[in-house]
């Protein structure tokens, strides 16, 4: 072999090696780009064609009698700083309660903020939603429970529109009693509607009675697991008559999509669940479920809303 030929062979081998490097780099590059790109796209899900609330034509609010609604949430006093370690609720309650107060006032809804005294000290504070709702169930047609780490991000949307889009008619007496959303873990207890009825009273009593689910000392308090257990064990007939789960989680319970390994994994293996629930501009509500820096998230979203 001449010198030139040897050099050419050497060159080809070198190129092959470089190609192989590129082939290895490409998936790595994609893997690195996937999280920020996904965050960018999911945040724009609604402008990319996602529909959380059916288009305006179908958006008739519940007609006839004007129904009475109340948002029920935690008050901004007393509870501050009682959150689980690592999960800062300090400063979150005041900001989210202000946001709910403004929304309720604009639409003529009631707002009940659970006072410190209403929290049963024998259980993690999250359980007190059951008592708070039970105590107020007879005063309004519908109660809308809001965990403290939630914000109304599109105050133009009315609760009547949300309910109409799930129920499909505006006959209060023929309505189901419990309106939920579902995330990757099943039904979520952070935001839901409950109707004034005997069924709802019994349902809340049953929920409160699921004492074996009460959990201390972790980020989970057990109220959500108990709710999921009850809903999962209803007969199909009872579910059909009393429970509705919104088709789109983003109808009233969107979670910000944060680029962690867990969420990338979920995006790859459960793309449709991620798509239905990721917080995007225009969504009705955001819920900082599972996020640690709730205060940071609250002020970031509130800042974005005023711009
Ligand atoms: C809940 O528990 C209380 C006290 O044990 C009991 O009196 C009540 O009947 C229970 N209610 C339901 C709906 O399970």
UniProtKB/TrEMBL annotation:
Checking SUPFAM superfamilies in the record gives: Nucleotide-diphospho-sugar transferases
Q: Which GO terms describe its biological process?
A: protein N-linked glycosylation
Q: Spell out the InterPro entries in the cross-references.
A: Glyco_trans_34, Nucleotide-diphossugar_trans
- Which Pfam families does its entry note? Glyco_transf_34 (PF05637)
Range of residues in the leader sequence:
1-39
Keywords in alphabetical order: Glycosyltransferase, Golgi apparatus, Membrane, Signal, Signal-anchor, Transferase, Transmembrane, Transmembrane helix
Q: In which domain of life is the source organism classified?
A: Eukaryota
Q: Where in the cell is it found?
A: Golgi apparatus membrane
Name the major location. Golgi
- List the PANTHER family hit by this protein, alphabetically: ALPHA-1,2-GALACTOSYLTRANSFERASE, ALPHA-1,6-MANNOSYLTRANSFERASE MNN11-RELATED
Return the protein name: Uncharacterized protein
Organism this protein belongs to:
Triticum aestivum
């Amino acid at each position: 072999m001449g010198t030139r030929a040897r050099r050419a062979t050497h060159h080809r081998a070198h190129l092959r090696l470089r190609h192989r490097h590129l082939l290895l780099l490409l998936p790595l590059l994609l893997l690195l780009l996937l999280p920020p790109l996904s965050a960018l796209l999911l945040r724009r899900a609604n402008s990319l064609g996602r529909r959380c609330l059916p288009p305006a034509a179908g958006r008739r609010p519940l007609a006839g009698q004007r129904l009475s609604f109340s948002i029920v949430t935690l008050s901004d006093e007393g509870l501050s700083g009682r959150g689980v370690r690592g999960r800062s609720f300090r400063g979150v309650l005041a900001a989210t309660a202000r946001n709910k107060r403004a929304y309720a006032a604009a639409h003529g809804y009631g707002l009940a903020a659970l006072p410190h005294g209403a929290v049963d000290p024998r259980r993690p504070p999250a359980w007190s939603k059951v008592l708070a709702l039970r105590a107020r169930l007879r005063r309004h047609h519908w109660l809308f429970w809001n965990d403290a780490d939630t914000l109304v991000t599109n105050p133009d949307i009315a609760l009547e529109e949300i309910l109409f889009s799930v129920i499909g008619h505006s006959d209060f007496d023929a309505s189901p009693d419990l309106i939920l959303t579902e995330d990757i873990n099943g039904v979520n207890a952070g935001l839901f509607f409950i109707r004034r009825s005997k069924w709802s009273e019994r349902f809340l009593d049953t929920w409160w009675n699921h004492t074996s689910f009460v959990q201390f000392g972790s980020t989970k308090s057990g109220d959500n697991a108990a709710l999921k257990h009850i809903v999962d064990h209803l007969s199909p007939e009872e579910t059909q008559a009393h429970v509705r789960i919104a088709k789109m989680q983003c109808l009233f319970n969107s979670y910000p999509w944060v680029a962690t390994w867990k969420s990338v994994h979920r995006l790859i293996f459960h793309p449709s669940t991620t798509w239905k629930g990721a917080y995007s501009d225009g969504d009705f509500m955001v819920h900082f479920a599972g996020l640690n820096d709730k205060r940071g998230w609250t002020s970031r979203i509130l800042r974005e809303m005023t711009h």
